[in-house]
Specification:
Low-confidence stretches: none
Mean pLDDT: 85
CATH class of one domain: Mainly Alpha
Radius of gyration: 20 Å
Distance between the termini: 51 Å
Shape: elongated
Number of strands: 0
Length: 206
């Protein structure tokens, strides 16, 4: 019997190889022939999954963010993770851990974005569109925290944007600076969030 092909597994293999090619060759100079050669697949086979290199990049962002929001959407309203502030902290810590554990892929992704911008191909709006849900999730949790008296009534928009900006900065540091400390970053997030806690509110035990 012919070997059964796991198409999702193959798509992810193409994706990972493409990010490596983009980082090594530059986004402008990369093409599907190079990606096919590195994958050990024919160009027509690659075309069965992706029309062009832009579609590969879109798929990479979509895949990562979809998995992230499915996971965090469930955590956000699960009280076993603690109160609303603790859940935000847990999600932030998980983002940090995920970025650290996938440093090479994160670096490739950011390299692609920087190189493509130099070539006048701007993926920033795609990233904003795909990650805005995380900011919205933080806003919903902060609104709930305000309503439950867990905070002293923080500015939801400001704080949620600050948290997201922190995570962006951490991801950049992980990818490019090489001096990232997970424990220090997590401590910083905890300190920042605890500054908004109501003095009368005791965190729930996880």
């Amino acid at each position: 019997m012919p070997k059964r092909i796991d198409h999702e597994e193959r798509k992810e293999k193409i994706l990972k190889t493409a990010l490596d090619v983009f980082a090594k060759e530059g986004y402008r100079d990369s093409n599907l022939s190079l990606i096919a050669e590195e994958c050990g697949l024919s160009r027509p086979t690659i075309y069965q999954y992706f029309r062009d290199k832009d579609e590969i990049f879109y798929y990479a962002v979509k895949l990562v963010t979809s998995r992230m929001f499915t996971r965090y959407g469930a955590i956000a309203w699960d009280e076993t993770y603690g109160d609303c502030i603790q859940r935000i902290e847990y999600i932030c810590n998980d983002v940090i851990d995920t970025a650290v554990n996938n440093e090479a892929a994160l670096q490739s992704l950011m390299d692609v974005m920087l190189q493509s911008k130099r070539d006048h191909v701007d993926f920033s709006q795609l990233i904003v569109k795909r990650t805005i849900k995380l900011t919205i999730l933080f806003k919903r949790l902060l609104n709930a925290a305000n309503q439950r008296g867990e905070t002293a009534g923080c500015d939801v928009d400001k704080v949620s944007n600050h948290i997201f900006t922190l995570l962006e900065a951490f991801c950049f540091q992980i990818a490019f600076l090489g001096n990232f400390s997970s424990s220090d970053s997590k401590d910083f997030v905890a300190t920042y969030l605890n500054a908004y806690r109501s003095e009368k509110h005791e965190p729930e035990t996880r």
